[in-house]
Amino acid sequence: MTTPTLAPVSSPPLRGHALALATLEAIRANPEEFDPAVWRDTYSKCFAGWACDLAGGRWLVVPDEDGELYLPNGGWTDDEEALGYLLADEIDPPDLVTEREGHRVVHIMDRAPLVLGLDPSSVHLSSGTRLFHRDNTPDTLARLIEAAYDGGSDA
């Protein structure tokens, strides 16, 4: 069994409306990897998780083909909640950064609004843009994205 590695980001990461549209496109192209009811699990992720991924976020844990969760240092954990965290980056406000498994991290629900150019003070689940709501479908997301970005301008 090999430890998964993270690919370096080679181009500037997507942000704002362009990221939201790319996220929707990725979800439509990979419907089996989209689950709006979970932030991220070993096989799927919600809109926020997809957005963080496409924005170049580096996950605290990366699952291998057997579902083992590997940490950046090559160690592993059985803490499935760790799937919802990304390694902290300069984009993350210090008050949102915490420590988990010995690494500085931020939760998906805190990073996603930042990279999507949305109001970070709104949870975006059942209020705000509702982009992270557990019942969203790709068609619902398309309408929510249009509303969130006023038909094309960043929110």
Tell me about this structure.
This protein is α+β, with helices and mostly antiparallel strands. It has one domain (17-148). Helix content is 27%, strand content 11%. It is built from four helices and six strands; from the N terminus they run H-H-E-E-E-E-E-E-H-H. The chain has helices at 16-29, 47-54, 108-116, 138-148, and strands spanning 62-63, 69-70, 76-77, 85-87, 98-100, 103-107. A hairpin with a 2-residue loop joins strand 5 (98-100) and strand 6. The chain is globular. The protein starts with 15 loop residues before the first helix and ends in a 7-residue tail after the last helix. The mean pLDDT is 90.
Please outline the helices and strands:
Layout: H1 16-29, H2 47-54, E1 62-63, E2 69-70, E3 76-77, E4 85-87, E5 98-100, E6 103-107, H3 108-116, H4 138-148
Antiparallel strand pairs: 1-2, 2-3, 4-6, 5-6
Helix pairs in contact: 1-2, 1-4, 2-3
Give a quick set of tags describing it.
single chain, 155 residues, alpha+beta, three-stranded antiparallel beta sheet, 4 helices, 27% helix
